[in-house]
Amino acid sequence: MPDRWKPNVTVAAIVQRHDRFLLVEEHTRDGLRLNTPAGHLDPAETPQQACVREVLEEAAYDFTPTALVGVYMNRFVRTRTGADITYLRFAFTGDLGQHHAQQRLDEGIVRTVWLTYEELQASAHLHRSPVVLQSIGDYLAGQRFDLNLIQADASIFSPPSAMAVPL
């Protein structure tokens, strides 16, 4: 059977406080980059749960998603390996909770930064992905979708059954 194409599923949080947005500065294969708190969907978690986990791991804040801002796809070729990669990103907005100042940030995260939209536009060449600015622009335009748009069957939380019927 030939290899199936599978996009990498990621989540991201768009958090605004006054006129600034929460970003993380992180080391990547392509150098230091800016990103919204984001990361990969792990097994046995919903996109919302993944977003809560990623904000805590990357920015040391509790986070409660309240709306889906959008679902974004982007594709690029890694500069060092030549790998052709497609990402499917669920971007959420929500309520920022307690900051855990003593918590160690995820590997590669240098620090959190709060930037205005104008500063984000000026630093677009440093963004980890083009969807960082696009999703924040959609957020500022008022784009919000109910979290019930994303449904997760209970089967994602348990090992697959030999009798399971694929969709």
Widest sheet, order of strands: 5-1-7-6
Instruction: Determine the strand fraction and express it as a percent band.
Output: 35-45%
User: What gross morphology would you assign?
Assistant: globular
**CATH-derived architecture:** Alpha-Beta Complex
Spell out the helices and strands N to C: EEEEEHEEEHH
Average predicted confidence as pLDDT: 93
- Can you tell me the residue ranges where pLDDT is under 50 for at least 5 consecutive residues? none
Largest sheet composition: 4 strands, mixed
CATH fold category name: Nucleoside Triphosphate Pyrophosphohydrolase
Specify the number of helices. 3
Write the CATH homologous superfamily. Answer: Nucleoside Triphosphate Pyrophosphohydrolase
Taking the alpha carbons of the first and last residues, their distance comes to: 19 Å
Beta strands, count: 8
The CATH first-level class comes to: Alpha Beta
Number of domains: 1
Structural class: alpha+beta
In a few lines, what is going on in this structure?
This protein has 167 residues and is α+β, with helices and mostly antiparallel strands. The chain has a single domain (8-148), classed as Nucleoside Triphosphate Pyrophosphohydrolase.
